[in-house]
């Protein structure tokens, strides 16, 4: 695996490889890799001649400085996992390399970045869009892989790529879960054993919501029940549970659910913020 820390060197290398008509698959990450990340790498490996992974904990997408500071980092282990996964290229820039000067660019997506994650993490998607744009410009991938776990992020990146004419095909990869259903996440590493047990409430709430929706229980009633479920467990806090149209993320209020519906949830276990989602037809 070739490892690059500098934009210039990576560009030169990939420019050369591209002349040999290689297709480049790209998996952007923030490191502390788990099987979910590795499933994106595996899909990219299966579909492209070269797979590039980036690890960059992007400061501009963190609205909470403590979250940024405590974000899990384990580069040696990540490199080992990527080597075992036969990843071809790893890009690990530092903050100075990616942000040579303080960014003045803000990217506004109208409705899409004000709701859900955007409501609770102001500025988050502008930071995501900024770093993804930079990475797309550097790597110029043929295909880029993102997890369904970050459902809203995939929508944001889709709008970004379409409106800014990035020549990249985007693919969404299904969420990998632990045996008890908890969505794999780098942040899970920070949970104590007790918190880890409690974290299952997120996936359970998604399953219950789906079941109640099929039983034609009103969305408002479902939200009340899930709120109560969270209130009954100490150390957990619900931020939102939203039933939305999976295309435009507009909330669905009525009981007659369209097939293309997604349930999105976010909240805290202790000070660790977790998100998850479930498509109705999954
Ligand atoms: P992150 O390092 O959290 O920024 O994630 C990097 C990429 O991996 C994003 O596209 C995520 O959506 C994706 N990802 C994170 N968790 C999972 C998971 N459990 N299953 C599949 N993909 C995931």
Structure, explained:
It is a single chain. This protein is an alpha/beta fold. 40% of the residues lie in helices and 20% in strands. A hairpin with a 2-residue loop joins strand 8 and strand 9. Bound molecules: adenosine monophosphate (AMP). The site of adenosine monophosphate has 17 residues, from helix 2 and strand 5.
| Structural class label | alpha/beta
The count of helical stretches stands at 11
Small-molecule components bound: adenosine monophosphate
Molecular shape? globular
Biggest sheet architecture: 6 strands, parallel
Order of H and E elements: EHEHEHHEHHHEHEHHHEEE
Helical proportion? 40-55%
Total count of strands:
9
Oligomer: single chain
Mean pLDDT, all residues: 96
Write the layout of secondary structure elements.
Blueprint: E1 2-4, H1 7-19, E2 24-29, H2 35-47, E3 50-55, H3 65-70, H4 75-84, E4 89-91, H5 95-98, H6 117-120, H7 124-139, E5 143-147, H8 151-163, E6 169-173, H9 193-198, H10 200-214, H11 219-231, E7 236-245, E8 261-269, E9 272-279
Parallel strand pairs: 1-4, 2-3, 2-5, 3-4, 5-6
Antiparallel strand pairs: 7-8, 8-9
Helix pairs in contact: 7-8, 10-11
The structure holds adenosine monophosphate.
Residues 29-30, 36-37, 39-40, 146-147, 149-150, 173, 175-176, 183-186 line the site of adenosine monophosphate.
């Amino acid at each position: 695996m070739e490892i690059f820390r500098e934009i210039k060197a990576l560009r030169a290398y990939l420019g050369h490889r591209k002349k040999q008509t290689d297709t480049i698959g790209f998996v952007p990450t923030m490191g502390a890799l788990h099987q979910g990340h590795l499933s994106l790498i595996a899909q990219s490996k299966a579909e492209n001649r070269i797979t590039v992974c980036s690890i960059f904990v992007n400061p501009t997408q963190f609205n909470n400085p403590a979250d940024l500071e405590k974000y899990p980092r384990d580069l040696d282990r990540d490199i080992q996992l990527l080597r075992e996964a036969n990843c071809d290229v790893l890009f690990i820039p530092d903050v100075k390399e990616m942000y040579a000067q303080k960014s003045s660019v803000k990217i506004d997506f109208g409705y899409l970045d004000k709701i859900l994650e955007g409501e609770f993490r102001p500025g988050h998607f502008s930071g995501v869009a900024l770093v993804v744009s930079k990475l797309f410009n550097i790597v110029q991938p043929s295909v880029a892989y993102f997890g369904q776990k970050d459902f809203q992020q995939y929508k944001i990146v889709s709008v970004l790529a379409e409106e800014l004419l990035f020549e990249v095909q985007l693919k969404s990869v299904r969420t990998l879960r632990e045996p008890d259903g908890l969505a794999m996440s780098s942040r899970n590493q920070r949970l104590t054993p007790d918190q880890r047990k409690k974290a299952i409430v997120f996936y359970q709430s998604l399953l219950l919501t789906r079941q109640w929706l099929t039983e034609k229980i009103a969305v408002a009633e479902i939200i009340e029940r899930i709120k109560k479920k969270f209130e009954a467990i100490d150390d957990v806090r619900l931020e939102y549970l939203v039933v939305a149209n999976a295309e435009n993320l507009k909330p669905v209020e009525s009981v007659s659910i369209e097939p293309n519906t997604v349930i999105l949830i976010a909240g805290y276990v202790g000070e660790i913020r977790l998100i998850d989602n479930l498509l109705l037809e999954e």
